[in-house]
Amino acid sequence: MFENNIIQISNRSTTNINLHIYYCGSEECSPNQSWGSKVVDHFLIYYIHEGKGILQVNNVSYDLHEGQGFLVSPNTVTYFVADNDEPWKYSWVGFSGNIATEYLYRANLSVNSPTYTDKNDDDFLEECFNNMIEFAKFGLGHNRYCKMMAVLYNIIAYLRDIADKEAVKEKLIDSEFYYVRKALEFIKMNFSKEISIAEISRYVNIDRKYLHHVFKNNLNMSPQKYVINYRMKKACEIMKNSMLSISGIARSVGYKDQFQFSKMFKKTIGISPSQYKRNLKNDNSSTNENKDNQIRLLNQIIEQKDREINELKQFINDHYNPII
């Protein structure tokens, strides 16, 4: 059963200069129960066991839920409130010390980055905070402070692991985007030539297997498929804007064999290049016919207006009697 606890551990006269715990606690909040706005002179790390709520730090809001947590930093205006329908249950530990800021910075926790997300399924953080509360209840005779400090170090180390994994993931994503951009650059410059996947790999400076991986991961298709799609797209553009023959279009997009080009075009676009050209011609004929109809309609309107003007002139001549 989740209990509400606030347990004082130390005061300013009994502190470790490097890292020390002031207090810890847990609470099952009522709907819309809030904390702050207020400022403290130490750090607090919260972990959300259940429910959800909103954190506001320097007027920036964060929606948080079970499995996430947040940092309250010293000398920073902070406010948080439980959700009305699913109020959160959370635990916390308050601490300070000369190395606290540096440790939290390495865990990517600060005023500007006050939240974290535990994506692992091992319940490690939840157990840590539960142990922190249990050790705090032991009293002074059970060496509780050393045990609690060990838990705090475990919490911070775990948060650093989370930050390191995210950093590696972001770096990997950035590098994959770079490789994809380089590969697309090569394809754009050389699609009219006979290019191989090996040549693309050499240009990007990665092996073929990894090139295939980054394409599938970022574009959801293989490099071969992308090259074919790009060539067919360019072939369609050429057909719309030139009178080249099918063989000329094939050569323009890197195919020496017209029949191979036609086969890939039909497989990709759904119709043969010849049919595509006929469709374009029919579309143009329809467009020209529409334009002719519009011109005829406009001429009819002009003729009607001319007749109305002439009738008005005749009326004026018939009914206008100048005064002599």
Blueprint of the fold:
Blueprint: E1 5-8, E2 20-28, E3 34-38, E4 43-50, E5 52-57, E6 60-65, E7 68-72, E8 78-82, E9 89-96, H1 100-106, E10 115-117, H2 124-137, H3 144-190, H4 197-204, H5 208-219, H6 223-241, H7 246-252, H8 258-269, H9 273-319
Antiparallel strand pairs: 1-2, 2-9, 3-8, 4-7, 4-9, 5-6, 5-8, 7-10
Helix pairs in contact: 2-3, 3-4, 3-5
Keywords:
324 residues; alpha+beta; Jelly Rolls; Arc Repressor Mutant, subunit A; 2 domains; six-stranded antiparallel β-sheet; four-stranded antiparallel β-sheet; 9 helices; elongated; AraC family transcriptional regulator; Tscrpt_reg_AraC-type_HTH; DNA-binding transcription factor activity; HTH-like
CATH class of the largest domain: Mainly Beta
String of helices and strands: EEEEEEEEEHEHHHHHHHH
Rounded to the nearest angstrom, the radius of gyration is 37 Å
Low-confidence stretches: 319-324
Indicate the mean pLDDT.
84
Please work out how many helical segments DSSP would assign. Answer: 9
Specify the CATH homologous superfamily of the largest domain.
Answer: Regulatory protein AraC
Q: In terms of structural class, how would the helical and strand content be classed?
A: alpha+beta
- Please report the distance between the alpha carbons of the first and last residues: 114 Å
* Shape label: elongated
CATH level-3 fold name of the largest domain: Jelly Rolls
InterPro entries: AraC-bd, Homeodomain-like_sf, HTH-like, HTH_AraC, HTH_AraC-typ_CS, RmlC-like_jellyroll, Tscrpt_reg_AraC-type_HTH
Protein name: AraC family transcriptional regulator
Keywords: Coiled coil, DNA-binding, Transcription, Transcription regulation
Domain HTH araC/xylS-type: 181-279
